[in-house]
Amino acid sequence: MTTDRPGIVRRLYTGLLPLTAQASARFVWMSNFEAERFWTDNKAVQLPRLSQPEDAAIINRLEETSLFLAEAPDLLILRERSDQEFLDYLTELGYRLPTILHADPPDNQTPIAEAVLANQHLCGLLSQSSPDGVRPFFLPYAKTALEEQISEKTGLQCLGPRAEVCAKINSKVYSRTLSRELGLRTIKGWECESFGEIEAAFKGASRNLTVGQTLVLKESMGVSGKGLLIVDSERRAQQTLAMLKRKERNDSQFAFVLEQWVDKLKDINYQIFISASGQVELLAIKEIIAQKGVHLGHRFPPTLSRSQIERYEQAGQAVGARLFKEGYTGIVGIDSIIDHNHEIYPVLEINARFNMSTYQLGMERLIRPEAKVIAKAYPLQLKERLPFSRLIELIGPHLFRKGASDEGVIIQNFATVNANNDSSGQPFKGRLYLLLMGEDDHQLARLDRLITGRLNPFQSPN
Does residue 208 have a pLDDT over 80? Predict the structure, then answer.
Protein backbone atom coordinates (compact mmCIF):
# COMPACT_ATOMS: atom_id res chain seq x y z
CA MET A 1 0.00 0.00 0.00
CA THR A 2 1.82 3.09 -1.24
CA THR A 3 1.11 6.52 -2.65
CA ASP A 4 4.63 6.98 -4.10
CA ARG A 5 3.52 6.21 -7.65
CA PRO A 6 1.09 8.48 -9.51
CA GLY A 7 -2.54 7.46 -9.10
CA ILE A 8 -4.23 5.21 -11.64
CA VAL A 9 -6.40 7.94 -13.18
CA ARG A 10 -3.42 10.24 -13.72
CA ARG A 11 -1.40 7.37 -15.22
CA LEU A 12 -4.23 6.49 -17.61
CA TYR A 13 -4.67 10.04 -18.87
CA THR A 14 -0.92 10.51 -19.20
CA GLY A 15 -1.07 7.53 -21.56
CA LEU A 16 -3.39 9.52 -23.87
CA LEU A 17 -0.63 12.06 -24.51
CA PRO A 18 2.06 11.89 -27.18
CA LEU A 19 5.10 9.95 -25.94
CA THR A 20 7.23 13.09 -26.04
CA ALA A 21 4.84 14.86 -23.64
CA GLN A 22 4.30 12.10 -21.07
CA ALA A 23 7.42 12.51 -18.90
CA SER A 24 6.79 16.21 -18.17
CA ALA A 25 2.98 16.16 -18.32
CA ARG A 26 1.00 18.46 -16.05
CA PHE A 27 -2.77 18.55 -15.78
CA VAL A 28 -5.28 21.16 -14.69
CA TRP A 29 -8.17 19.33 -12.98
CA MET A 30 -11.65 20.76 -12.47
CA SER A 31 -14.88 19.06 -11.36
CA ASN A 32 -17.78 20.65 -13.24
CA PHE A 33 -20.55 18.46 -11.83
CA GLU A 34 -23.28 20.44 -13.61
CA ALA A 35 -22.18 19.22 -17.07
CA GLU A 36 -25.52 17.67 -18.11
CA ARG A 37 -27.10 21.10 -17.75
CA PHE A 38 -24.82 22.41 -20.50
CA TRP A 39 -25.20 19.37 -22.71
CA THR A 40 -28.97 19.99 -22.72
CA ASP A 41 -30.22 22.26 -25.50
CA ASN A 42 -31.94 25.36 -24.14
CA LYS A 43 -34.96 24.52 -26.26
CA ALA A 44 -35.25 21.02 -24.78
CA VAL A 45 -38.55 20.15 -23.13
CA GLN A 46 -38.03 19.05 -19.53
CA LEU A 47 -40.14 17.37 -16.88
CA PRO A 48 -41.24 19.27 -13.75
CA ARG A 49 -38.79 19.09 -10.87
CA LEU A 50 -38.36 20.67 -7.47
CA SER A 51 -35.45 23.06 -7.17
CA GLN A 52 -33.22 22.24 -4.21
CA PRO A 53 -30.56 24.97 -3.91
CA GLU A 54 -29.06 23.33 -0.81
CA ASP A 55 -28.55 20.07 -2.71
CA ALA A 56 -26.96 21.93 -5.63
CA ALA A 57 -24.50 23.63 -3.27
CA ILE A 58 -23.49 20.26 -1.83
CA ILE A 59 -23.03 18.68 -5.25
CA ASN A 60 -20.90 21.62 -6.35
CA ARG A 61 -18.57 21.12 -3.38
CA LEU A 62 -18.12 17.44 -4.17
CA GLU A 63 -15.28 18.84 -6.28
CA GLU A 64 -13.01 18.53 -3.22
CA THR A 65 -12.90 14.77 -3.80
CA SER A 66 -10.63 15.64 -6.74
CA LEU A 67 -7.82 15.90 -4.19
CA PHE A 68 -7.62 12.09 -4.32
CA LEU A 69 -6.89 12.29 -8.08
CA ALA A 70 -4.98 15.51 -8.71
CA GLU A 71 -1.44 15.54 -7.39
CA ALA A 72 1.82 17.49 -7.67
CA PRO A 73 2.94 18.82 -10.10
CA ASP A 74 -0.65 19.32 -11.31
CA LEU A 75 -3.05 22.19 -10.66
CA LEU A 76 -6.57 21.84 -9.30
CA ILE A 77 -9.30 24.44 -9.62
CA LEU A 78 -11.73 24.50 -6.68
CA ARG A 79 -14.63 26.84 -6.09
CA GLU A 80 -13.22 28.06 -2.78
CA ARG A 81 -10.59 27.21 -0.18
CA SER A 82 -10.50 23.81 1.53
CA ASP A 83 -10.21 23.44 5.27
CA GLN A 84 -6.49 23.33 6.11
CA GLU A 85 -6.99 20.48 8.61
CA PHE A 86 -8.57 18.38 5.85
CA LEU A 87 -5.60 19.11 3.57
CA ASP A 88 -3.22 18.10 6.36
CA TYR A 89 -5.21 14.88 6.79
CA LEU A 90 -4.73 14.02 3.10
CA THR A 91 -1.02 14.73 3.36
CA GLU A 92 -0.82 12.36 6.33
CA LEU A 93 -2.44 9.68 4.16
CA GLY A 94 0.45 10.11 1.73
CA TYR A 95 -1.13 12.25 -1.00
CA ARG A 96 1.09 14.76 -2.78
CA LEU A 97 -1.31 17.67 -3.08
CA PRO A 98 -1.48 19.72 -6.28
CA THR A 99 -1.26 23.49 -6.52
CA ILE A 100 -4.80 24.63 -5.71
CA LEU A 101 -6.39 27.60 -7.47
CA HIS A 102 -9.75 29.12 -6.54
CA ALA A 103 -12.57 30.26 -8.83
CA ASP A 104 -14.31 32.31 -6.09
CA PRO A 105 -17.84 32.27 -7.57
CA PRO A 106 -20.31 34.94 -6.35
CA ASP A 107 -22.50 32.28 -4.70
CA ASN A 108 -22.66 28.52 -4.12
CA GLN A 109 -24.94 27.95 -7.13
CA THR A 110 -22.92 29.47 -9.99
CA PRO A 111 -21.41 26.73 -12.19
CA ILE A 112 -17.66 26.53 -11.69
CA ALA A 113 -16.85 26.87 -15.41
CA GLU A 114 -18.77 30.16 -15.55
CA ALA A 115 -16.93 31.35 -12.44
CA VAL A 116 -13.56 30.49 -14.03
CA LEU A 117 -14.37 32.36 -17.24
CA ALA A 118 -15.49 35.41 -15.23
CA ASN A 119 -12.37 35.41 -13.03
CA GLN A 120 -9.77 37.32 -15.03
CA HIS A 121 -7.09 36.87 -12.37
CA LEU A 122 -7.56 33.08 -12.39
CA CYS A 123 -7.55 32.94 -16.19
CA GLY A 124 -4.30 34.92 -16.11
CA LEU A 125 -2.74 32.42 -13.71
CA LEU A 126 -3.80 29.55 -15.95
CA SER A 127 -2.36 31.32 -18.99
CA GLN A 128 0.96 31.68 -17.18
CA SER A 129 1.03 28.14 -15.73
CA SER A 130 3.78 26.86 -18.02
CA PRO A 131 7.16 28.13 -16.75
CA ASP A 132 8.95 25.50 -18.87
CA GLY A 133 7.06 26.56 -21.98
CA VAL A 134 4.86 23.43 -22.06
CA ARG A 135 1.18 24.17 -21.61
CA PRO A 136 -0.64 21.95 -19.09
CA PHE A 137 -3.48 19.73 -20.29
CA PHE A 138 -7.00 20.60 -19.14
CA LEU A 139 -8.71 17.60 -17.48
CA PRO A 140 -12.25 18.44 -16.34
CA TYR A 141 -14.82 16.04 -14.89
CA ALA A 142 -16.74 16.45 -18.15
CA LYS A 143 -16.25 18.48 -21.30
CA THR A 144 -18.90 20.94 -22.44
CA ALA A 145 -18.67 24.07 -24.58
CA LEU A 146 -17.69 26.03 -21.45
CA GLU A 147 -14.60 23.91 -20.83
CA GLU A 148 -13.60 24.36 -24.46
CA GLN A 149 -13.95 28.13 -23.96
CA ILE A 150 -11.67 27.92 -20.91
CA SER A 151 -9.03 26.11 -22.99
CA GLU A 152 -9.29 28.70 -25.75
CA LYS A 153 -9.12 31.65 -23.31
CA THR A 154 -6.20 30.37 -21.23
CA GLY A 155 -4.17 28.39 -23.75
CA LEU A 156 -4.53 25.12 -21.81
CA GLN A 157 -4.15 22.12 -24.10
CA CYS A 158 -7.32 20.13 -24.80
CA LEU A 159 -7.37 16.45 -23.90
CA GLY A 160 -9.78 13.81 -25.11
CA PRO A 161 -12.94 14.08 -27.22
CA ARG A 162 -14.79 17.20 -28.31
CA ALA A 163 -17.71 18.45 -26.23
CA GLU A 164 -20.24 17.50 -28.91
CA VAL A 165 -19.02 13.89 -28.86
CA CYS A 166 -19.40 13.74 -25.06
CA ALA A 167 -22.92 15.18 -25.25
CA LYS A 168 -23.97 12.67 -27.92
CA ILE A 169 -22.67 9.68 -25.95
CA ASN A 170 -24.16 10.86 -22.66
CA SER A 171 -27.70 10.78 -24.09
CA LYS A 172 -30.03 8.03 -22.86
CA VAL A 173 -31.44 7.87 -26.38
CA TYR A 174 -27.94 7.03 -27.62
CA SER A 175 -27.43 4.44 -24.84
CA ARG A 176 -30.62 2.55 -25.73
CA THR A 177 -29.85 2.61 -29.43
CA LEU A 178 -26.30 1.41 -28.84
CA SER A 179 -27.43 -1.38 -26.49
CA ARG A 180 -29.80 -2.78 -29.10
CA GLU A 181 -27.35 -2.46 -31.97
CA LEU A 182 -24.71 -4.35 -29.98
CA GLY A 183 -27.20 -7.13 -29.27
CA LEU A 184 -27.13 -6.54 -25.51
CA ARG A 185 -30.11 -7.29 -23.29
CA THR A 186 -32.12 -4.07 -23.38
CA ILE A 187 -35.12 -3.02 -21.30
CA LYS A 188 -38.30 -2.89 -23.37
CA GLY A 189 -38.84 0.72 -24.33
CA TRP A 190 -38.88 3.47 -26.89
CA GLU A 191 -36.57 6.34 -27.87
CA CYS A 192 -38.56 9.51 -28.46
CA GLU A 193 -37.30 12.63 -30.20
CA SER A 194 -40.62 14.37 -30.90
CA PHE A 195 -43.94 14.75 -29.12
CA GLY A 196 -45.51 12.49 -31.73
CA GLU A 197 -43.02 9.72 -30.90
CA ILE A 198 -43.78 10.07 -27.18
CA GLU A 199 -47.51 9.87 -27.91
CA ALA A 200 -47.00 6.78 -30.06
CA ALA A 201 -44.79 5.18 -27.39
CA PHE A 202 -47.45 5.63 -24.72
CA LYS A 203 -50.04 4.19 -27.08
CA GLY A 204 -47.81 1.18 -27.69
CA ALA A 205 -47.26 0.76 -23.95
CA SER A 206 -50.91 1.12 -22.94
CA ARG A 207 -51.36 -2.64 -22.64
CA ASN A 208 -48.57 -2.70 -20.03
CA LEU A 209 -50.50 -0.23 -17.90
CA THR A 210 -53.78 -2.15 -18.15
CA VAL A 211 -52.11 -5.27 -16.72
CA GLY A 212 -50.66 -3.38 -13.77
CA GLN A 213 -47.14 -2.75 -15.00
CA THR A 214 -45.30 0.54 -14.54
CA LEU A 215 -43.51 2.75 -17.02
CA VAL A 216 -40.82 5.36 -16.48
CA LEU A 217 -40.31 8.40 -18.69
CA LYS A 218 -36.75 9.77 -18.59
CA GLU A 219 -35.18 12.92 -19.96
CA SER A 220 -32.28 11.97 -22.17
CA MET A 221 -29.87 14.08 -20.07
CA GLY A 222 -31.44 13.46 -16.66
CA VAL A 223 -29.01 12.69 -13.84
CA SER A 224 -29.12 11.42 -10.22
CA GLY A 225 -32.82 10.60 -10.20
CA LYS A 226 -33.82 13.97 -11.70
CA GLY A 227 -35.70 14.31 -14.96
CA LEU A 228 -37.81 11.19 -14.70
CA LEU A 229 -41.48 10.46 -14.16
CA ILE A 230 -43.14 7.24 -12.96
CA VAL A 231 -46.29 6.36 -14.91
CA ASP A 232 -48.38 3.63 -13.28
CA SER A 233 -51.84 4.13 -14.80
CA GLU A 234 -53.56 5.15 -18.04
CA ARG A 235 -54.80 8.29 -16.26
CA ARG A 236 -51.24 9.22 -15.33
CA ALA A 237 -50.14 8.58 -18.92
CA GLN A 238 -52.78 10.97 -20.26
CA GLN A 239 -51.81 13.62 -17.69
CA THR A 240 -48.18 13.30 -18.73
CA LEU A 241 -49.01 13.64 -22.43
CA ALA A 242 -51.18 16.69 -21.75
CA MET A 243 -48.37 18.32 -19.77
CA LEU A 244 -45.82 17.67 -22.54
CA LYS A 245 -48.27 18.87 -25.21
CA ARG A 246 -48.54 22.21 -23.40
CA LYS A 247 -44.75 22.56 -23.64
CA GLU A 248 -44.65 21.88 -27.38
CA ARG A 249 -43.55 24.82 -29.52
CA ASN A 250 -42.36 25.11 -33.11
CA ASP A 251 -38.74 25.07 -31.97
CA SER A 252 -39.16 22.68 -29.02
CA GLN A 253 -36.77 19.76 -28.83
CA PHE A 254 -37.86 16.44 -27.34
CA ALA A 255 -35.35 13.82 -26.16
CA PHE A 256 -36.83 11.14 -23.90
CA VAL A 257 -36.89 7.42 -23.39
CA LEU A 258 -39.97 5.56 -22.19
CA GLU A 259 -39.19 2.23 -20.57
CA GLN A 260 -40.98 -0.60 -18.87
CA TRP A 261 -40.18 -0.63 -15.17
CA VAL A 262 -37.93 -3.52 -14.17
CA ASP A 263 -37.80 -4.68 -10.56
CA LYS A 264 -34.12 -4.57 -9.73
CA LEU A 265 -32.09 -6.89 -7.59
CA LYS A 266 -28.99 -4.70 -7.93
CA ASP A 267 -27.84 -1.45 -9.51
CA ILE A 268 -24.34 -1.89 -10.93
CA ASN A 269 -21.91 0.73 -12.19
CA TYR A 270 -18.82 -0.27 -14.13
CA GLN A 271 -16.08 1.89 -15.58
CA ILE A 272 -13.97 1.41 -18.64
CA PHE A 273 -11.01 3.32 -20.02
CA ILE A 274 -10.54 3.77 -23.76
CA SER A 275 -6.91 4.37 -24.74
CA ALA A 276 -5.55 6.49 -27.59
CA SER A 277 -5.21 3.31 -29.69
CA GLY A 278 -8.71 2.04 -28.88
CA GLN A 279 -7.72 -0.52 -26.26
CA VAL A 280 -10.49 -0.96 -23.67
CA GLU A 281 -9.73 -1.69 -20.01
CA LEU A 282 -12.33 -2.57 -17.38
CA LEU A 283 -11.36 -0.49 -14.35
CA ALA A 284 -13.98 -1.39 -11.75
CA ILE A 285 -17.40 -2.94 -11.13
CA LYS A 286 -19.35 -1.59 -8.14
CA GLU A 287 -22.80 -1.96 -6.68
CA ILE A 288 -24.68 1.33 -6.42
CA ILE A 289 -26.27 2.28 -3.10
CA ALA A 290 -29.40 4.29 -3.88
CA GLN A 291 -32.45 5.53 -1.99
CA LYS A 292 -35.60 6.72 -3.77
CA GLY A 293 -33.63 6.90 -6.99
CA VAL A 294 -30.91 9.09 -5.48
CA HIS A 295 -27.32 7.85 -5.71
CA LEU A 296 -25.81 7.61 -2.20
CA GLY A 297 -22.62 5.64 -2.80
CA HIS A 298 -21.06 2.30 -3.76
CA ARG A 299 -20.35 -1.12 -2.34
CA PHE A 300 -17.39 -3.07 -3.66
CA PRO A 301 -16.41 -5.59 -4.63
CA PRO A 302 -19.98 -6.52 -5.61
CA THR A 303 -21.28 -10.04 -5.10
CA LEU A 304 -21.33 -11.35 -8.66
CA SER A 305 -20.82 -14.76 -10.21
CA ARG A 306 -17.88 -15.41 -12.51
CA SER A 307 -20.24 -15.56 -15.50
CA GLN A 308 -21.80 -12.20 -14.55
CA ILE A 309 -18.37 -10.60 -14.31
CA GLU A 310 -17.54 -12.03 -17.74
CA ARG A 311 -20.75 -10.51 -19.12
CA TYR A 312 -19.68 -7.10 -17.86
CA GLU A 313 -16.21 -7.55 -19.32
CA GLN A 314 -17.70 -8.46 -22.70
CA ALA A 315 -20.17 -5.57 -22.62
CA GLY A 316 -17.42 -3.13 -21.65
CA GLN A 317 -15.27 -4.24 -24.59
CA ALA A 318 -18.18 -3.94 -27.04
CA VAL A 319 -19.28 -0.51 -25.78
CA GLY A 320 -15.72 0.79 -25.64
CA ALA A 321 -15.00 -0.26 -29.21
CA ARG A 322 -18.10 1.55 -30.46
CA LEU A 323 -17.34 4.71 -28.46
CA PHE A 324 -13.80 4.79 -29.83
CA LYS A 325 -15.28 4.87 -33.34
CA GLU A 326 -17.30 7.91 -32.22
CA GLY A 327 -14.05 9.66 -31.32
CA TYR A 328 -14.14 9.07 -27.57
CA THR A 329 -11.13 8.28 -25.38
CA GLY A 330 -10.83 8.33 -21.60
CA ILE A 331 -13.00 7.13 -18.74
CA VAL A 332 -16.62 6.11 -19.27
CA GLY A 333 -19.06 5.12 -16.53
CA ILE A 334 -21.88 2.73 -17.44
CA ASP A 335 -24.96 2.15 -15.28
CA SER A 336 -26.68 -1.22 -15.45
CA ILE A 337 -29.13 -3.36 -13.49
CA ILE A 338 -29.56 -7.00 -12.55
CA ASP A 339 -33.18 -8.13 -12.23
CA HIS A 340 -34.66 -10.66 -9.82
CA ASN A 341 -34.06 -13.43 -12.34
CA HIS A 342 -30.35 -12.51 -12.20
CA GLU A 343 -30.46 -11.29 -15.79
CA ILE A 344 -28.10 -8.41 -16.60
CA TYR A 345 -29.13 -5.32 -18.55
CA PRO A 346 -25.55 -4.09 -19.12
CA VAL A 347 -26.24 -0.66 -20.64
CA LEU A 348 -28.90 1.39 -18.91
CA GLU A 349 -27.05 4.65 -19.52
CA ILE A 350 -23.57 5.78 -20.49
CA ASN A 351 -21.82 8.65 -18.70
CA ALA A 352 -19.17 10.21 -20.93
CA ARG A 353 -17.41 11.75 -17.94
CA PHE A 354 -16.03 10.95 -14.51
CA ASN A 355 -18.42 9.78 -11.80
CA MET A 356 -18.13 9.14 -8.06
CA SER A 357 -16.65 5.73 -8.75
CA THR A 358 -13.81 7.48 -10.62
CA TYR A 359 -12.84 9.47 -7.53
CA GLN A 360 -12.81 6.28 -5.47
CA LEU A 361 -10.13 4.94 -7.83
CA GLY A 362 -7.89 7.53 -6.23
CA MET A 363 -8.51 6.00 -2.81
CA GLU A 364 -8.04 2.36 -3.76
CA ARG A 365 -4.27 2.59 -3.30
CA LEU A 366 -5.08 2.69 0.45
CA ILE A 367 -7.33 -0.37 0.35
CA ARG A 368 -6.21 -3.98 0.71
CA PRO A 369 -7.27 -6.02 -2.36
CA GLU A 370 -9.30 -8.43 -0.19
CA ALA A 371 -11.08 -5.70 1.83
CA LYS A 372 -14.82 -5.07 1.71
CA VAL A 373 -15.74 -1.42 1.14
CA ILE A 374 -18.74 0.89 1.30
CA ALA A 375 -18.49 4.45 -0.01
CA LYS A 376 -21.49 6.26 1.40
CA ALA A 377 -23.03 9.70 1.92
CA TYR A 378 -24.48 10.58 5.34
CA PRO A 379 -27.06 13.43 5.29
CA LEU A 380 -26.62 16.08 7.99
CA GLN A 381 -28.76 18.86 9.45
CA LEU A 382 -26.48 21.32 11.21
CA LYS A 383 -27.12 24.35 13.39
CA GLU A 384 -23.59 25.70 13.08
CA ARG A 385 -20.36 24.94 11.26
CA LEU A 386 -18.97 21.51 12.12
CA PRO A 387 -15.17 21.80 12.56
CA PHE A 388 -12.94 19.12 11.05
CA SER A 389 -11.43 18.45 14.48
CA ARG A 390 -14.92 17.71 15.85
CA LEU A 391 -15.57 15.28 12.99
CA ILE A 392 -12.33 13.47 13.82
CA GLU A 393 -13.51 13.17 17.43
CA LEU A 394 -16.83 11.69 16.29
CA ILE A 395 -15.15 9.04 14.15
CA GLY A 396 -12.66 8.38 16.94
CA PRO A 397 -10.36 5.36 16.76
CA HIS A 398 -12.13 4.12 13.64
CA LEU A 399 -10.48 6.80 11.48
CA PHE A 400 -8.12 5.15 9.00
CA ARG A 401 -4.48 6.06 9.56
CA LYS A 402 -1.85 5.06 7.02
CA GLY A 403 0.38 2.33 8.41
CA ALA A 404 -1.70 1.92 11.57
CA SER A 405 -4.58 -0.25 10.37
CA ASP A 406 -6.01 -1.95 7.32
CA GLU A 407 -9.61 -1.14 8.30
CA GLY A 408 -11.48 1.98 9.23
CA VAL A 409 -13.00 5.15 7.82
CA ILE A 410 -11.56 7.48 5.15
CA ILE A 411 -13.07 10.95 4.90
CA GLN A 412 -13.69 11.44 1.17
CA ASN A 413 -14.72 15.07 1.33
CA PHE A 414 -15.14 17.74 4.02
CA ALA A 415 -16.36 20.74 2.00
CA THR A 416 -19.83 19.21 1.56
CA VAL A 417 -20.36 19.13 5.33
CA ASN A 418 -20.55 22.92 5.67
CA ALA A 419 -21.37 23.81 2.05
CA ASN A 420 -24.59 25.62 3.03
CA ASN A 421 -23.28 27.42 6.12
CA ASP A 422 -23.79 31.16 5.62
CA SER A 423 -23.03 32.25 9.21
CA SER A 424 -26.65 33.44 9.62
CA GLY A 425 -27.29 31.10 12.53
CA GLN A 426 -30.02 29.27 10.58
CA PRO A 427 -30.00 25.45 10.40
CA PHE A 428 -28.54 24.16 7.13
CA LYS A 429 -28.20 20.94 5.19
CA GLY A 430 -24.85 19.20 4.82
CA ARG A 431 -23.56 15.83 3.66
CA LEU A 432 -20.61 13.73 4.79
CA TYR A 433 -18.95 11.35 2.33
CA LEU A 434 -17.08 8.48 3.96
CA LEU A 435 -15.39 5.33 2.71
CA LEU A 436 -15.70 2.41 5.15
CA MET A 437 -13.29 -0.54 4.96
CA GLY A 438 -13.58 -3.88 6.73
CA GLU A 439 -12.75 -7.58 6.57
CA ASP A 440 -16.30 -8.68 5.73
CA ASP A 441 -19.85 -7.43 5.27
CA HIS A 442 -20.72 -7.97 8.95
CA GLN A 443 -17.85 -5.76 10.07
CA LEU A 444 -18.87 -3.12 7.53
CA ALA A 445 -22.45 -3.19 8.78
CA ARG A 446 -21.29 -2.72 12.38
CA LEU A 447 -19.03 0.15 11.37
CA ASP A 448 -21.86 1.79 9.41
CA ARG A 449 -24.21 1.52 12.43
CA LEU A 450 -21.53 2.93 14.71
CA ILE A 451 -20.85 5.93 12.45
CA THR A 452 -24.58 6.52 11.98
CA GLY A 453 -25.04 6.50 15.74
CA ARG A 454 -22.22 8.97 16.34
CA LEU A 455 -23.58 11.27 13.65
CA ASN A 456 -27.12 10.93 14.96
CA PRO A 457 -27.23 14.38 16.65
CA PHE A 458 -26.39 15.88 13.26
CA GLN A 459 -28.43 13.56 11.02
CA SER A 460 -31.04 14.94 8.68
CA PRO A 461 -34.57 13.62 9.31
CA ASN A 462 -34.85 13.21 5.52
Answer: no
